[in-house]
Recover the amino acids of this structure.
């Protein structure tokens, strides 16, 4: 019986389990879970604080998931090193586990830049895990003033999550705009205006020079008083287990289209990896949950002797705040088609007869039709793009496509 | 598995399927209560291509990208049909971002909405099919 070992217990691990079980019903699967929780939907921790989900509904898979898939989960355990020759993984507890096939799905960790005086701050938080969310929640009172360092996806979702639980929120970021990893300045301004209307204050293009207890001295010279600090500057892929034993790594663990690392019988999936982005033509870390699951599944199938590959990965994000949604995909490189409307924008980027990326704010209906154009690298001269760019629909794809896609099982 | 298919040749573009869908999924006991003075948000959409019309609803794909992409675990496959757990869904719209057919939309109660073949409402069989006056929409195995 084959022994499968998975380091990590997030979306990529679930993908790996489901991928393995789609091929091998009997092999032994062991999961090493640092967190003491059944797999939960990590991005939902802000919704948990908002009361839009609870500890029962936040589970990413039903409570009998491990049992049904005959998975042995080691909770509160951590992998400290991998011996690729002896094919074992050493754990924090001192135990050693053997494997025939290993999947590193170790995720990422918050990056906290060294800042003068950070040690003097009484209440410092990260916002990555359910435990982080619980700790943050318990430190908040209706009178709390919160400073969030980082106006990216994590910092802003955190802000939305705690808006009703504290008195005021200030978000600062070194970048001159919000959501700088996915939006340009025009689009970011739309989101910022909306977030400000919700009651969130911003200090952008500014950074904390030093902390002095409950005061942040900003580079601009202003001072921000706060009771609770959330550090949401960014995350770094957990690559050390693979890097230490000579596996190729960039910012993430390098994987090919089958999710193999450069080491034999060692696969990697999810936020700890970097892989090929078809829209930029480069290898990059694409830390997004759908891809984490798909990479995990792909790794699992291949680990179990099946065949699966991912050849069309692209970055994409769906983020919303109090009803205003922002859906983005691909790279913003190429000729831009733009439509503006009240409280929203549409931008499509066309390059070399292909749709290469888009930003949709407000009007987001049927956005997946655009994503599929990017993912499938559909030559735009084979569809009625003049129509399509105004209205995402299937009519502009023509009859042949429709009879293929709508006429039978897909 | 039986799925909903439309025969473009017979589709009149009358949009009755949209109204029947909205009614079937409204939870209301009469069509008037369900639809009167309301902008409907059906799970089936009629499109036009010149003089051709056709209706599009969830394909219930064998390997659905929406289910694989769902960040909350709210979308799953139940007996071949792609269904939403409305209590789990937080309306993040990642599924809207990935569905190549544009067949999932923002719902009213915070969760997304999509065709579930009327298996989870009081109709028990696709209302779009039952109400199609020209029998252009069918529910069959292909």
């Amino acid at each position: 019986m084959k022994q499968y070992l998975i380091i990590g217990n997030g979306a990529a691990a679930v993908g790996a389990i489901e991928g393995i079980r789609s091929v091998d019903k009997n092999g032994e699967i062991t999961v090493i879970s640092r967190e003491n929780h059944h797999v939960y939907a990590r991005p939902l921790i802000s919704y948990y604080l908002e009361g839009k989900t609870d500890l029962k509904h936040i589970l990413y898979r039903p409570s009998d998931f491990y049992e049904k898939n005959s998975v042995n989960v080691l909770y509160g355990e951590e992998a400290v090193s991998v011996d690729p020759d002896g094919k074992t993984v050493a754990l924090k507890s001192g135990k050693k586990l053997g494997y025939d096939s290993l999947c590193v799905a170790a995720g990422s960790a918050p990056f906290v830049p060294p800042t003068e005086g950070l040690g003097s701050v009484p209440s410092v938080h990260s916002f990555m895990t359910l435990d982080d969310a619980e700790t943050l929640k318990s430190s908040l009172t209706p009178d709390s003033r919160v400073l969030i360092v980082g106006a990216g996806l994590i910092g802003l979702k955190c802000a939305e999550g705690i808006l009703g639980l504290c008195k005021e929120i200030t978000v600062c970021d070194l970048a001159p705009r919000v959501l700088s990893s996915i939006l340009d300045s025009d689009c970011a301004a739309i989101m910022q205006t909306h977030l400000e209307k919700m009651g969130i204050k911003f200090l952008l293009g500014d950074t904390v020079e030093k902390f002095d207890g409950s005061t942040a001295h900003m580079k601009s010279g202003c001072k921000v008083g706060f009771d609770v600090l959330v550090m949401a500057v960014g995350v770094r892929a957990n690559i050390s287990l693979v890097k230490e034993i000579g596996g190729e790594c960039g910012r993430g663990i390098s994987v090919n289209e089958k999710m193999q690392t450069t080491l034999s019988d060692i696969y990697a999936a999810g936020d700890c990896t970097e892989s090929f982005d078809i829209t930029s033509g480069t290898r990059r870390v694409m830390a997004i949950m759908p891809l984490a699951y798909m990479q995990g599944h792909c790794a699992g199938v291949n680990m179990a002797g099946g065949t699966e590959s991912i050849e069309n990965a692209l970055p994409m994000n769906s983020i919303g705040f109090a009803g205003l949604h922002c859906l983005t995909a691909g790279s913003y490189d190429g000729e831009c088609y733009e439509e503006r409307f009240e409280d929203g924008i549409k931008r499509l980027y066309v390059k070399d007869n292909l749709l290469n990326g888009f930003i949709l704010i407000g009007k987001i209906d049927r956005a997946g039709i655009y994503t599929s154009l990017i993912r499938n690298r559909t030559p735009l001269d084979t569809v009625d793009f003049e129509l399509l760019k105004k209205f995402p629909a299937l009519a502009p794809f023509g009859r042949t496509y429709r009879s293929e896609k709508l006429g039978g099982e897909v | 598995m039986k799925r909903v298919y439309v025969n473009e040749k017979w589709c009149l573009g009358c949009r009755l399927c949209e109204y029947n869908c909205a009614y079937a999924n409204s939870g209301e006991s009469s069509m008037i209560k369900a639809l009167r003075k309301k902008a409907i948000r059906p799970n089936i959409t009629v499109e036009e291509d010149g003089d051709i019309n056709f209706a599009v609803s969830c394909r219930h794909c064998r390997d659905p990208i929406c289910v694989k992409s769902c960040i909350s675990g709210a979308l799953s496959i139940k007996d071949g049909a792609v269904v939403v757990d409305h209590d789990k869904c937080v309306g993040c719209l990642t599924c809207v971002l990935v569905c190549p057919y544009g067949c999932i939309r923002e719902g009213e109660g915070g969760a997304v909405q999509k065709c579930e073949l009327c298996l989870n409402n009081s109709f028990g069989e696709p209302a779009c099919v039952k109400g199609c006056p020209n029998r252009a929409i069918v529910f069959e195995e292909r």
Notes: The CA atoms of residues 49 and 80 of chain B lie 30 Å apart. Chain B touches chain A through 40 residues (CB under 8 Å). The mean pLDDT of chain B is 95. Strands of chain B lie at 2-6, 45-49, 52-56, 75-78, 81-84, 104-106, 112-114, 137-141.
